[in-house]
Structure formats: structure tokens, C-alpha cells
Amino acid sequence: MAKTAFIGLGVMGFPMAGHLRAKGHEVTVFNRTASRAEEWRARHGGQGGSTPAEAAREAEFVFICVGNDNDVRSVLYGPNGVLAGMKRGAVLIDHTTASAELAREIAEKSKGLGVDFLDAPVSGGQAGAENGKLTVMVGGESAAFERAKPEIDSYARACVLMGPHGSGQLAKMVNQICIAGLLQGLAEGMNFAAKAGLNGQRLIDTISKGAAQSWQMDNRALTMLAGKFEFGFAVDWMRKDLAICLAEAQRNGARLPVTALIDQFYAQVQARGGARWDTSSLMQLLVKD
């Protein structure tokens, strides 16, 4: 079993690190809010580091799962950062949804220290993390990927190398672009169904057997009809992700007119107090003036 470190114990990182521990790996954790790391150790055992560097010092694999580009830099760089503690030959895996530009930056800095790097954002949400059924999109070199894949498989149902450094983040951007458009279509469909007086359960049971079927329909359509949004993937997080998508599109010339429009719809949800609502809360803009 490998010696690992996990940096960032939020709603995703906490269960992901737990799966590593359950598979028998040695796990040392660090979280910027220390009480969260103490809670994890009380539940799973393992060790704790007082700094990211200390947590990473003996690890063969170091995992990061924090909020955004700046959060990654804050735990990675500097005398107390992960890279200051990692040993040559170890593998750094960043599960944060961040920019492809940051991934390439980290890859360059890691290479100079003899550390392999993989950008590896995930899809599947909190439920996927808790159930060990995440989809992991990876960018990096194949040798490092093959070394890290058995560890990542502790909490993944799919783990695929998409291409060179940055490709994992680019793949995650496509994932979020597709979800945003799908959710708006689903919100409009469910609102139309309600206005038309259709039985929601019967409708979903029927059309989910055809071409309209999607994960979002299976898991969100009925809660949208019920006006339940106090759970799931927060609007704040989706807006962070869509900002990354739109910035990358500015660089590569891709046109994202629908994505840009839905990002503004999410801004309206935030203005209505829905910053922490699930992304399916686009429905709220259709049912309330």
C-alpha cells in the first residue's frame, strides 16, 4: 500500500481521502481549517500534518482538492507548501477544478523538482465522492498516470488520460459547458410541463426512456418541479467553473454564446439569495418574477 497525502478536506476531498484510507493506504491529511482534519482523523485514523509541506514529506502520491487557482497556489508554493515537502519521484495529483494555464504552470515547476504532476479534475459531485464513483479526467504524462491510476481508482468509476498537461482541466470545462446548457433546457421543459398541467412523475418516467434522458433528468427533474434546491452542486461553484470556461474560450477562440447567457442566469440566482442552491435552481428564474 502506498504512502499518500491529501490536501483539502471539503465536501469532495473528505470522502475521497476516506476511500484511500479504506483501501489500506497510509494517508496523511492537511486542511486549512484544522478542525476539519481532526474530524477526518477521528473517523478514519491516519496522520495529520501541520503544514502542506509536512503532510507531503514522505508521500509517494500527494492529492490536492481545494477551491480555485489561488487556493491551489496557496497550498502548493512557498516554504510550507506541498512542493517544498515532496520528495523526488513522487506524483502530485490536483483534483481541483482550475484553469489549464495553472496546470501547465504546476507541471513546469514540478518537473524542475523531480516531481511528476497530473491535473485531474473530477465529475460526479458530492454523491460521487461519497460513493467512490467519480469520473476523473487527467492531463499529464502516461507513465505518471499509470502509476497514479490504481490510487485514483479508490474513489473513481472512470479515470481516463485525456492528453498532455492541461487536458484534464480542458475536459472538465467541456463537462461544465454541457451541463449548463442541459440544465437550462431541463428547467424550461419542467416549467413548461408544470404550466401544461402534466403529471411530473409520469412525464419523467416516460421521456427518460428516450432521447431526452440524462443524469440531470434522472436526478434533478422531480426536485426542480418540487422547488427543492438546498443541496447539491452550488451555484457559486458553477459560476467559478463557467468563468474558467469563458476565459479559456477567449484564448482559444471558441464561441460560447449559450454558456455566457446561462452564466448570467446564474448571476440572477445568486442575486435572489441562491448562491448555495444546487445548479438546478435555474428553474427559479422561470417560476418566480
Please tell me about this protein's structure:
There is one protein chain. By secondary structure, this protein is of the alpha/beta class. The chain has 2 domains: 3-163, Rossmann fold (3-Layer(aba) Sandwich); 170-287, Orthogonal Bundle (N-(1-d-carboxylethyl)-l-norvaline Dehydrogenase, domain 2), CATH 1.10.1040.10. It has 14 helices and 9 strands. The chain has helices spanning 13-22, 34-44, 52-56, 69-76, 82-85, 100-112, 125-131, 142-152, 167-196, 200-207, 215-226, 235-252, 257-271, 284-287; strands at residues 3-7, 26-30, 47-48, 61-64, 91-94, 116-119, 122-123, 134-139, 156-163. The longest helix is centred in the middle third of the chain and has 30 residues, at 167-196.
Write the layout of secondary structure elements.
Elements: E1 3-7, H1 13-22, E2 26-30, H2 34-44, E3 47-48, H3 52-56, E4 61-64, H4 69-76, H5 82-85, E5 91-94, H6 100-112, E6 116-119, E7 122-123, H7 125-131, E8 134-139, H8 142-152, E9 156-163, H9 167-196, H10 200-207, H11 215-226, H12 235-252, H13 257-271, H14 284-287
Parallel strand pairs: 1-2, 1-4, 2-3, 4-5, 5-6, 8-9
Antiparallel strand pairs: 7-8
